[in-house]
């Protein structure tokens, strides 16, 4: 059997997190291989690409907010550098800002509390009356009671980003090995690479697990090294805003409708992405009539004119959720094995910062302070 070159770093999983990490790590001068049967796939192929650290903020998630903001402020430069490294591929990054609106008195009260929370944290978040919100977005339903304008929550096109990352990886010398990981190799108490489903032994100095909601399922992974990363299904729609329609929507729009998070992301090329359901039913990516109905029904309450638009695609992806819904970043308890997974609702947003933090650890051995709260060892069971 031909001997495969031994990379410094083997990244298991060629989705947005794996590719961004591989690219940044190769830039640090390390030899990197990405293992994935179809690199450039994963949840970011489905995601709307909202970069929303402030409007997706939940109470008690301040460390995640800091991480999200750290990634958000890197995004414009990350995309510009990626365009250059990929030979000119654009990522659809748009600094649109986001409008979060309330449809009834309860939503309005909840949004008001979120605004107060934003203010306590010193975030740029401005309260608008219903009339002011409609002035920004004239197609909004007359019933909209008020909203929050967050100037720094933007958007990127996940599909274009993946294409650009693949090209940048290849041009930076990252080797793409098209196979699946069948088993983690552990030798002398240390991760030593993987066995592929084609029976190849892929040895590596360090192995990074970036396989989304399949990360913890890798055979050979010692018990307790990685917590479960559960799949959380999101169904999503793509519509088209014909130019003749005028400016249908100019910025990201979001709302909580009947307890569910609804968002609409208008791209510069006329695509309008509507998401997303939140369903916990295993590794199922079926698009259901009920999911499409709910999204259209709720979107119609916000923007009644949406039913006139052509519906061009329906899809479903799996968000990787850790037990506390925050990412798993950096060295695990198994020497030689690092994690870059569990990004849940924020994989696209957190890709630049994840890649920088992992590349720093892989290049220097140090764990940056920003990554420390997200150590995979926070789930390690203490001895009884
Ligand atoms: N970040 C949006 C979602 O997960 O649906």
Describe this structure in words.
α1 packs parallel to α6 (158-171), α1 (16-27) packs parallel to α8 and α2 crosses α8 (347-364). The model has no long low-confidence stretch (mean pLDDT 95). This protein folds into 2 domains: 9-46 and 160-228 and 323-379, FAD/NAD(P)-binding domain; 95-152 and 230-321, D-Amino Acid Oxidase, Chain A, domain 2 (2-Layer Sandwich). It has an 8-stranded mixed β-sheet, with helices on both faces. The chain has a 6-stranded mixed β-sheet with strand order 8-2-1-12-19-18, covered by helices on one side. Strands 9-10-11 form a 3-stranded antiparallel β-sheet, with no helix packed on it. Helices cover 27% and strands 26% of the residues. The protein starts with 8 loop residues before the first strand and ends in a 20-residue tail after the last helix. It is of the alpha/beta class and 384 residues long. It has 8 helices and 19 strands. The chain binds glycine.
């Amino acid at each position: 059997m031909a001997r495969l070159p031994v990379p410094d770093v083997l990244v298991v999983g060629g989705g947005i997190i794996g590719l961004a990490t591989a690219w940044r790590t190769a830039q640090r001068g390390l030899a990197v291989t990405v293992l994935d049967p179809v690199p450039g796939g994963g949840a970011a192929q489905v995601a709307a690409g909202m970069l929303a650290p402030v409007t997706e903020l939940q109470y008690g998630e301040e460390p995640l907010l800091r991480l999200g903001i750290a990634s958000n402020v890197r995004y414009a430069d990350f995309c510009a550098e990626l365009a250059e490294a990929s030979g000119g591929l654009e990522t659809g990054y748009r600094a649109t800002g986001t409008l979060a609106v309330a449809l009834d008195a309860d939503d309005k009260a909840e949004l008001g509390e979120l605004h107060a929370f934003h203010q306590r944290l010193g975030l740029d978040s401005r309260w608008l009356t219903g009339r002011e919100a409609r002035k920004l977005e004239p197609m909004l339903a007359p019933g909209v009671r008020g909203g929050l304008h967050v100037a720094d929550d933007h958007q990127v096109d996940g599909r274009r980003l993946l294409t650009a990352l693949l090209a940048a990886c290849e041009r930076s010398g990252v080797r793409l090995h098209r196979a699946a990981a069948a088993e983690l190799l552990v030798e002398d108490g240390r991760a030593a690479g993987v066995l592929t489903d084609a029976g190849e032994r892929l040895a590596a100095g360090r192995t990074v697990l970036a396989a989304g909601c399949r990360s913890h399922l890798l055979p050979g992974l010692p018990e307790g090294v990685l917590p479960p990363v559960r799949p959380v299904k999101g169904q999503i729609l793509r519509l088209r805003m014909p130019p003749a329609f005028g400016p249908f929507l100019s910025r990201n729009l979001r709302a909580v409708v009947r307890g569910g998070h609804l968002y609409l992301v208008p791209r510069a090329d006329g695509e309008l992405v509507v998401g997303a359901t939140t369903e916990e039913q295993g590794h199922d990516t079926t698009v259901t009539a009920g999911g499409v109905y709910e999204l259209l029904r709720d979107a119609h309450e916000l923007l009644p004119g949406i039913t006139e638009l052509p519906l061009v695609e329906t899809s479903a992806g799996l968000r990787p959720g850790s037990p506390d819904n925050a990412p798993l970043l950096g060295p695990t308890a198994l020497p030689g094995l690092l994690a870059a997974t569990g990004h849940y609702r924020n994989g696209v947003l957190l890709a630049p910062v994840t890649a920088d933090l992992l590349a720093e650890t892989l290049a220097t051995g140090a764990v940056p302070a920003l990554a420390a709260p997200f150590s995979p060892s926070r789930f390690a069971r203490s001895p009884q």
